[in-house]
Design a protein that fits this description.
The chain is mainly beta. Helices cover 9% and strands 38% of the residues.
């Protein structure tokens, strides 16, 4: 397919974006409300709860903490320490443990709050938003706890950034991102569930490789990398034993990231945006067949739609969104109708 035709397919905007979304997304609803901002949510194995990151109101900490919500009664509980930064939470397959990355052991964690608030005030006064940039905080390590936050235990202690962890479907392993081999070498690693026996999965030094998830059958890992063009993330898949790595996307005008597996281990959902267009690029969600490369657009909202995940049964899709492009990000959910190929 010619590049111009491919871009036209992705850039065509329907007059009624809500109608366009309703083909694959039914009963779209907002899930989080009582936070300054919230996002990156994941379902519990039974689909009854979610774990996510959010900024609490009136705590003096402008950074994300981790929360668990019961979807039936909407009860929310913070499960992270409340100090410093946290991100990348995930339920174990049997639902008895959770993991997340936290910088609460940083002795200067609270000293960073003032600078963040200062930058926000500068944004408010100027009316200009900062360019998004992920913070590879060297004090971020992966911790395990019970789903209520009790019995917190540190799993990684290598110098540098350790985060973006998720369990294998059998619960025996955790795949994660680390720069333990050097500040510019953000590679994927797999460790045993207890943090032992760490082994390197990717070997693409001098770039970022992150956001990994095992396929539901445990055979492959999906992830993102900017190895071809700095900050222009593309999607990759690799066998769990480190063989068979290949790129799934290679349009360097686009940033394509946040991939997550569908229950069949053959399809993924992810976010993408064309950075070659004028103005601020807008992210939407796409469905892809990992083996054929066929893509189908799922969202058309005026705001950003990112970090999509499926419920274990594949019947619901949850993602982080501003929806109208004016409100802070929150978690949204819809009943999912899988495309027919």
């Amino acid at each position: 397919m010619h590049v111009w035709l491919l871009l036209s397919l992705f850039s065509a905007e329907p007059e009624d974006w809500q109608k366009a979304e309703s083909v694959h997304l039914k009963n779209t609803r907002q899930i989080t409300r009582d936070f300054i901002r919230a996002g990156e949510g994941y379902f519990s194995p039974d689909g009854q709860s979610i774990i996510f990151q959010a900024e609490e109101k009136a705590t003096g900490n402008p950074f994300y903490q981790i929360f668990v919500m019961d979807l039936q009664n909407k009860h929310v509980r913070r499960v992270s320490p409340g100090i410093g930064k946290t991100t990348c939470s995930f339920f174990s397959p049997e639902g008895k443990k959770i993991i997340f990355a936290s910088s609460h052991l940083d002795p200067d964690a609270k000293k960073q709050y003032a600078e963040e608030y200062r930058q926000r005030e500068d944004e408010r006064k100027s009316g200009k938003r900062r360019r998004y940039k992920w913070d590879f905080d060297p004090y971020l390590d992966i911790f395990e706890s019970n789903p209520d936050g009790s019995e917190l235990r540190r799993l990684t202690d290598a110098p540098g950034y350790d985060a973006e962890g998720s369990y294998s479907p059998d619960g025996k392993f955790i795949v994660f991102c680390s720069n333990r081999s050097g500040p510019d070498n953000l590679e994927l690693y797999i460790m045993d569930r207890d943090g032992k026996n760490v082994r390197q999965l990717t070997h693409a030094s001098g770039c970022y490789n992150g956001g990994p998830f095992f396929s539901p059958d445990g055979k492959r890992v999906i992830f993102r990398s900017d190895r071809k063009k700095k900050d222009h993330l593309q999607l990759y898949v690799i066998n769990a034993d480190g063989t068979g790595e290949r790129a799934l996307t290679d349009d360097l005008n686009w940033v394509q990231w946040g991939p997550y597996w569908y229950k069949d281990s053959k399809h993924i959902v992810y976010a993408g945006a064309n950075h070659a267009v004028a103005g601020r690029p807008n992210y939407d969600l796409y469905w892809m067949n990992v083996d054929t490369g066929k893509k189908i657009r799922l969202t058309y909202a005026p705001g950003a739609d990112v970090l999509p995940v499926f419920s274990p049964d594949g019947k619901r899709l949850m993602w982080t969104s501003t929806r109208d492009g004016r409100q802070p990000s929150q978690l949204w959910m819809a009943d999912f109708v899988a495309p027919v190929e």
